Amino acid sequence: MDKNLYTRPGWLFLMMxxxxxxxxxxxxxxxxxxxxxxxxxxxxxxxxxxRLSCESCHQRGIxxxxxxxxQGCHAQGGxxxxxxxxxxxxxxxxxxxxxxxxxxxxxxxxDHVSVTGTCESCHNGRMxxxxxxxxxxxxxxxxxxHTTRNWAGARFDHSSVSGNCMRCHNGVTATGxxxxxxxxxxxxxxxxxxxxxxxxxFDHAGITSGCANCHNxxTATGxxxxxxxxxxTCExxxxxxxxxxxxxxxxxxxxAGCFNCHNGATATGxxPTHIPSxxxxxxxxxxxxxxxxxxxxSNAGNNCNSCHNGSTATxxxxxxxxxxxxxxxxxxxxxxxxxxxxxxxxxxxGDHRSVRNCLGCHTTNSETITxxxxxxxxxxxxxxxNSYDAGEHKKVDNPRILYTVGELxxxxxxxxxYTDSTLTNILKRRSGQHRVTDGGW
Length: 441
Known about the structure:
The protein is mostly loops. The chain has helices at residues 11-30, 54-57, 70-73, 96-99, 281-284, 381-384, and strands at residues 394-396, 401-402, 417-418, 426-428. The chain is built from six helices and four strands.
C-alpha cells in the first residue's frame, strides 16, 4: 500500500466506503424500498392505516413479527401504542373488525352474534336505545320479542305481559275490537288466545244483548227453516254451552198447537196406550213436564172405572173400602187423596175430616154401620159417648155440677158455665167448641 495514501485529499472518503456500504445494507433491512407493495405482507393498508407513517406500527425499525389482526395492536399491553377496547365496552367475543371500520373507529356496526351480555346491558337508554315510556307493560327481556336484525317488527310473546289485552289492542297500539264485533263487555282474553286471534273460544258470559243479534244466519248460525214455530228468543230454549240438544224448552212463545210438534215425528206424540180422549195435549199435559199429567176430566164423563181400573190409570187398591159407589163419590179429579166423601143422610152429622180411612167408622167394611150408642143417634154421642170426659165439662164450679153425656150429645151445641146451681146467670159462654170439620176433637 502506498504509504502516502493517508496524506492524500480523498483518503477519508475511501476509508468511509465500507462503513457506508454497511449502513446502506442495514437501512435496507429497516425501511421499505420505494414502490413497496404492502399487500404482500398479508396486512392490506386501507382506511386510516393508509395515512399512518411506517414508524407508527414499525417502531424501532422492526418489520418482522408485527401483528396482523386488530386486536393484536388494539389491546391492553399490546406491542403498539394503539387505541384499546375500553373497560365499558359491550361484552362480546367478536373481533374488532366484526363491528368497527378502519375508516372510523367510532362508527361501528354492531354484530350481536358474539355479544355475551344481556340486551339491557346496552339497551338501557344510555349506551343504546332502551325501552320507551310507551312500551307494552311486560317483564320480558328484549330478546323475547325483538331480534338483532331489526328492532322493529317484534315477534310478540304474551307470556309475561302484565297488563290486560285492551291496553294494546285498542286500535292504536295494536289491532283492536272491530266495529262489527259482537256486543260484549268481556276483555279480549276471555275469548281470544295469544297463540292465535282466531278462532275464538267464545264465552257468552259477557254478552249484553239477545242471541239473535249474532245468531241471525249471517254473523252466526241462526234459526233453521224447519225450526219449531215460535216467537221465543234463542236463550229461552238453547244454552250457550251447547246449541243442541235444546234444554229447558220454553213453550211460552209457541204460536201453534202442541200436536203440530208432538205428533210422533217432530217430538213425542200420543202413545198407543193413551187414555181414549178427545182432549188436546195441553188440556192435561204441562210444558214443564210431560208426566205426570194434570188430567182434565171435563170430557171424561162420570164413569171413572173406565180408566181407573188399575191398568189404564190407578184403580181401587186391594184394601179399599168395599162399596158400589163410583170413584167420584169420594175422590176428586183435582186430587185422588184425601178422600172427601160427604154423607147426605140425616143420620150422619157432616164430613168427618179426621177420619182418613172409611174403615175408621165402617169397621165391618160395609156401607151401613150399627150405631155403638144408639140412644144418642144421630148425634156425636152416638159414636163418641165412651170418649166423653165429664170433668172437662163443668156446668157450675161451686158447688161442682157437671154436664151429662145426654146433655151434650150434640158436641157442637152450647156448653155454658153458670154462676150457681140456679143455672140462671151465665158466667162463661161456650158454644160450638167442637166441629166435625175441625179435623180434631
